[in-house]
């Protein structure tokens, strides 16, 4: 967890992993779309940025008293792409097609519902020591 949330600040945060997953999944799908269309990419760089309002994680209201969102905000997807002899319009269409066919970006773009299943395992609770 990050230092701001009481963690050590070492390692990747869940939000970082989400952005890494979005960018790598989109890149793979763009490459597949290019291969399907016979386009040989000479460069592809996919980067995803975003921010997180930590007030939402802690249940703290925003400045106007509204609930702060616990989810990532303002996710930006940046793609640098090049293929010799391929028009800018075709490359834009390729990126759009690849991104929309990519599982993780598709899930974010379409707000895939999340079902939460809770298992209250009494046996597991008995095996776990209580903090002293």
What does this structure look like?
By secondary structure, this protein is an alpha+beta fold. It is built from five helices and two strands. The chain has helices spanning 14-36, 54-58, 88-100, 103-109, 122-127; strands at residues 43-52, 72-82. A two-stranded antiparallel sheet has the order 1-2. The longest helix has 23 residues, at 14-36. The radius of gyration is 20 Å and the shape is elongated. The two termini are 24 Å apart. The relative contact order is 0.17. The model has no long low-confidence stretch (mean pLDDT 89).
Give structural attributes:
132 residues; alpha+beta; two-stranded antiparallel ribbon; 5 helices; elongated
Question: What is the compact description of this entry?
Answer:
The protein is α+β, with helices and mostly antiparallel strands. The protein has five helices and two strands.
């Amino acid at each position: 967890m990050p230092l701001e949330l009481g963690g050590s600040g070492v390692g990747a945060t869940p939000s970082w992993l989400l952005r890494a997953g979005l960018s790598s999944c989109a890149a793979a799908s763009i490459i597949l779309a290019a291969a399907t269309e016979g386009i040989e990419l000479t460069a592809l760089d996919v980067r995803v940025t975003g921010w997180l309002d930590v007030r939402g994680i802690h249940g703290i209201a925003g400045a106007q008293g509204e609930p702060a969102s616990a989810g990532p905000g303002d996710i930006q997807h940046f793609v640098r792409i090049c293929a010799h002899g391929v028009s800018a319009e075709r490359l834009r269409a390729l990126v759009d097609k690849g991104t929309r066919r990519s599982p993780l970006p598709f899930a974010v773009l379409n707000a895939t519902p999340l079902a939460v299943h809770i298992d209250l395992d009494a046996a597991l609770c008995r095996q776990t020591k209580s903090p002293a």
